[in-house]
Write the structure tokens for this entry.
Amino acid sequence: MIDLRSDTVTRPTEEMRRAIAAAEVGDDVFGEDPTINELQRRVATLLGKEEALFLPSGTMANVVSVMAQTSPGTEVILEEGCHIYNFESGSSARFSGVQFRLVSSRDGSFTADDVDRLVRDDNVHLPPTALIAMENTHNKAGGTLFPVEAMEGIGRYAEERGIKVHLDGARLWNASAATGIPLSRYAAAADSVSVCLSKGLGAPAGSLVAGGRSFIRKAHRIRKMLGGGMRQAGILAAAGLYALDHHVDRLADDHANAKLIADAFASLPGVDVDLDRTETNIVLADVSNHPFGEAKIIDALKRRDVLVLAIDTGLLRAVTSLEVTSEQAAEAASIIRETLIP
Ligand SMILES: Cc1ncc(COP(=O)(O)O)c(C=O)c1O
């Protein structure tokens, strides 16, 4: 199978499994897991923040970040297609008691001017704006890049008004690989940043949040409250450290492979792919005008051992990752061209 459904399907490689087996561990709830401590220091440095905290998932990293930087009854400004708003079971609203105010956008990015239109005035009738959340790269928009200058503009705008900023950087590694902009420059625009090890980096689980010391202290307590304190989880952190050493530079291959897949879809009548927006490892193909319809397309590709996902009516997603070699990406591209000719 050439599995293009998601970059979360990656399985730990033999070498990663060896790093997991060799990990030195301790009780992380006592702060005594040396491998977790090393990973936290390393990610904090990469993101240019004082501290980082290891968590089981990206969802928990986002929930903890929203909870730590808001209070019930306040408002969070975020983009309407973002992961926090759409794909986390409403957890930030549920656990933080916040409400959301949405920015509309085609590619998932927005500007300080967009935010300015939505920030609430100081008026007893209105919910105070507590937080702005950005996502880079943007999953639902197709792995799109949030321009760093726009992020910096939002960061400056928020700082002047005492509003906090969170960056959902589940795939910030991909953004940095695509643009050459260091992670720390992206992260500087936000007070808190979440990153995932279990997507393009190929670790079996694990995310981190990074930020200032007082944010991390709050986040640590909330992680415990939500049941996210783990014990000898250094076996997971070891996979993350291995991934930082061996799986970051290769993300450029995933991006090149995604272009092969995008070109294949784009060559077909009745399929619409925005090639300019295929900037990283996610390809979106609008098949609403293709005569087969999405269910038949998925089925036909599956019969040729290529797996893709429908993420909306008429919208297919194909994601490249270290599960897919360049040869397999080229093969998948040929299969897509052959199978979907009407
Ligand atoms: C942008 C983004 N943020 C957060 C998450 C949540 O990560 P997890 O699945 O580890 O909870 C995902 C998952 O795909 C994501 O794409």
